Amino acid sequence: MDLTLSESELAFQAEARAWLAANVPSTPLPSMDTAEGWVAHQEWEARLSAARWSVVSWPEAFHGREASLVEWVIFEEEYYRAGAPGRVSQNGIFLLAPILFDHGTPEQQARFLPTMATGEQIWAQCWSEPEAGSDLASLTSTARRDEARGGWLLGGQKTWSSRASFAHWGFGLFRSDPGAQRHAGLTYFLFPLDAEGVTVRPIAQLDGEAGFAEIFFEDVFVPDSDVLGGVGEGWSVAMSTAGNERGLSLRSPGRFCAAADRLVDLYRAGLDGHDAGSTGKIAGSTGEQVVDAWVKAQAYRLYTWGTVTRLAGGGDMGAAGSVNKVFWSELDIALHETALDLLGPEAEVDSTWLDGYVFSLSGPIYAGTNEVQRNIVAERILGLPREPKGART
Amino acid sequence: MKFELTDDQGDFRSSLESLLSSADTVGAARAWASGDHAPGLALWKRLADQGLTMLATDATPVEVCIAFESLGRHAVPGPWVESAAYLPLALGREVEGVATVAVPPLVPYALDADVADHVFVVTGGSLARATPGEHKTSVDRTRHLFTVSAEDAVTAGDLDAAFDLAVLATSAQLLGAGERILADAVAYVKQRKQFGREIGSYQAIKHALADVRIALDFARPLVLGAALGEVGVSAAKVAAGDAAYLSSRTGLQVHGAIGYTAELDLSIWITKVRALVTAWGTPAHHRARILQELVG
């Protein structure tokens, strides 16, 4: 039982901290879901990549540092502590890349990973459909064989596709065997979003910005070389992505610990600037809310070290990813709600806290709703009986 | 970086679990509650022989946590926090026999002072011998509480460190009790049928129990993290108390009326968790302490 970092890990931490201190923009970039902010975020990715900080855990051949899991967590901690920009390349580097490493051909890896690392090509995830949300396996978008051209013709509609408003490429599942049901007969495709037959319609999110989009496919040709994994094996290929998104990679503890520290600062500033009680700004219960949010951020940090230890020892995330996802998504909301409570009547006015709050509201919904996650915890970890037939087919 | 029990610590946990699993601890707890201390004292001796009373002075706080989680999981009765966590550090030595202590105002009564060989009280910042007075009935019938009056002072060690170790031990005990209630609740909802199917197949039940699993999973690293000095013990107590309490409320609810009976063994843990949540510092005390440390 040992929570200390080795000398090389400490050196890695110091190097990351120094680079970030010298390079993180002093004022926040405009939102990545605007045309102007998109460009600024892509430029930031290029800068990160030039110093080999964009994909620290990847092989050196693909612009990485072959960082260990421990080092990855350290980097993330430093990244968020430094107040660095959100990662516009997140869908690609955290969700698609692990699949490309496991299931991609060497040709696909060479073609896609380097431009993903530099931020030159940004990827959108295309899972949900209008009638297939939590029940993803009921998806009906199709892939028809085009033997003459050696590929597939995609048809149908995807929606809630994060980053698709501005992204260059998309990845998602399509039904390649029309006779197969549910998890069978699905294939994982990669496709450029400017291909003929693709129509992208941005959707304004709660904050008014086009963070996701719906995508229409009309006989979109995809060559065989852009099929990821085996034909008909899309579900099992994709599920490793879902595990990643729910689990460790998407939400590192650094993000919550940094927010918790800023929350404590906000509380302290309120105490210093106002007589407690006289302005109503520091209500009695907000102190306890600050404590609870801070304690939970620490819990998440320590829990992650436990996960890292298990993964480093050859274990896998499994259904524990669902435990993780419910916890961080609720923690994120609690952190930001507490900040808004502290801000009092100023809470409704534009601020970083308000942006973070609106973003946090999507946490319990995306990457598998928290209701689905609780089912997974109950059935796969606690061993409770599955829903009877009819309630779930 | 290795945040998991070492092989030796895992072995220690296994041997303790196997001893307690076959020791009829529930029988000892029920006897203790009714005033028959014999089975509980026999168990006390076996556990002392395993080294439990010397962990505070001779092992690390991690071993203390391992032991107290097991004591909580098996509802072992007696003043264990007092004898195996607080007093060894307060006295600067292992305690002989059964001992107890009151640390007012946070710990106003001495637990099981009627059966203790040595009774102490902290008064005016120093440790003194004490005599038990009036008996107070706890919600946890296995906890016999006594007022105390101070006598002669004794030389004391680090009372703050002693208090913190008692808080940590109580947190671990809460974790064990919370795990036990969850395990019993899961077993029950898998076999209890209503409306033609196991009640554990209904989402209302599943989601409630999943929330308990999640709360306990995130309380554990705080308890072990506090044992390693990564966070304060107050964070461990707050999280373990909240998680165990959620487990007790949920465990009672999914059992329905049978859960509300003294006859069902679940009652031992439900009442114990309620008592431990406010023992060795209430949640409000520990939250205020964390806030003070955060804002300085």
From TrEMBL, chain A:
Gene Ontology CC: plasma membrane
Cofactor(s) it depends on: FAD
Claim: Nucleotide-binding is one of the keywords in the record: no
Domain Acyl-CoA dehydrogenase/oxidase N-terminal positions: 6-120
InterPro entries reported in the protein's UniProt record: Acyl-CoA_Oxase/DH_mid-dom, Acyl-CoA_Oxase/DH_mid-dom_sf, AcylCo_DH-like_C, AcylCo_DH/oxidase_C, AcylCoA_DH/ox_N, AcylCoA_DH/ox_N_sf, AcylCoA_DH/oxidase_NM_dom_sf, Mycobact_Acyl-CoA_DH
Acyl-CoA dehydrogenase/oxidase C-terminal domain boundaries: 232-382
Domain Acyl-CoA oxidase/dehydrogenase middle, first and last residues per copy: 124-220
Residue intervals passing through the bilayer: none
Pfam families the UniProt entry points to: Acyl-CoA_dh_1, Acyl-CoA_dh_M, Acyl-CoA_dh_N
GO MF annotation list: flavin adenine dinucleotide binding; oxidoreductase activity, acting on the CH-CH group of donors
Keywords: FAD, Flavoprotein, Oxidoreductase
Family: Belongs to the acyl-CoA dehydrogenase family.
Name this protein carries in UniProt: Acyl-CoA dehydrogenase
UniProtKB/TrEMBL annotation, chain B:
Cofactor(s) listed in the protein's UniProt record: FAD
Protein name: Acyl-CoA dehydrogenase, C-terminal domain
Example of a GO cellular component annotation carried by this entry: cytoplasm
Keyword line: FAD, Flavoprotein, Oxidoreductase
Family matches, as SUPFAM superfamilies: Acyl-CoA dehydrogenase C-terminal domain-like (SSF47203), Acyl-CoA dehydrogenase NM domain-like (SSF56645)
Keyword Oxidoreductase: yes
GO biological process, one term: fatty acid beta-oxidation using acyl-CoA dehydrogenase
Domain Acyl-CoA dehydrogenase/oxidase C-terminal: 165-293
Claim: Oxidoreductase is one of the keywords in the record: yes
Transmembrane segments: none
Family: Belongs to the acyl-CoA dehydrogenase family.
GO molecular function term, any single one: flavin adenine dinucleotide binding
